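INTERNAL TRANSFER SHEET
From: sequence group
To: structure group
Subject: Succinate dehydrogenase/fumarate reductase iron-sulfur subunit

Please process the attached sequence and return the structure record in the designated field. Keep the field labels unchanged so the import script can parse them.
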Amino acid sequence: MKLTLEIWRQPEAGAPGRFERYLVDDATGEMSLLELLDRLNDALVDGGDDPVAFDSDCREGVCGSCGITVDGRPHGPVANTPSCRQHVRSFRDGATVRIEPFRSAAYPVVRDLVVDRGALDRLITAGGHIAVDAGTAADADAEPQGKDAAEYALDFAACIGCGACVAACPNGAAHLFAGAKLLHLGTVTRGRQERGRRAKALTGALEDEFGPCSSYGECADVCPESIPMTAIAAVNREVMRARLRGKPD
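Return from structure group:
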């Protein structure tokens, strides 16, 4: 199987970038997109050229490290599937495939297909956590949690933090990501204790780092864990709740 790859090459942050064309003539349908890039890099290194830089780790769809844009779509052509689980069989033999980094003002390019997703980390630092003083954590069975509530929290805890939602959004919003954190942490017993403070902190960081949400819906379509758009509604709801209560929880 032959594929022509148009890949974004950028030597470093701030440097001009460009698309370069490469031919891979020994691809197979069962290859993932990352394995396709591996095959290309083997050929580039053998020829004395610089390999294409890209992020990856577990390659099992659970770590959130990988992230490329394929023909204008974050992760690739198959909905709700991470880059490492997208396969070459999605393309016809002889096709030209354009591969570039996640595109968003919040994601500056570091090199080639690698972007700095530190803005998501700053959201987590602002409020995507439960504050527990070291040495004071309660026993696991000391704070009962109903099964339905636990399952609901786990549905939103499934977010792997890949950031494709931001790259897919025309506004560069991160409300799907932030809403998943708010619903997850605001549902569990210990997390409810600082629910209002968390909502205010997360939304403040959202405004500083990302664009506004206009509910386009592209975010939910590319999310590898199929986080629903109800997470977006949670952002405004949680902030309104905190304001009506008048003080942080």
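Handover comment: The mean pLDDT is 94. The CA atoms of residues 194 and 200 lie 10 Å apart.
Transfer complete.
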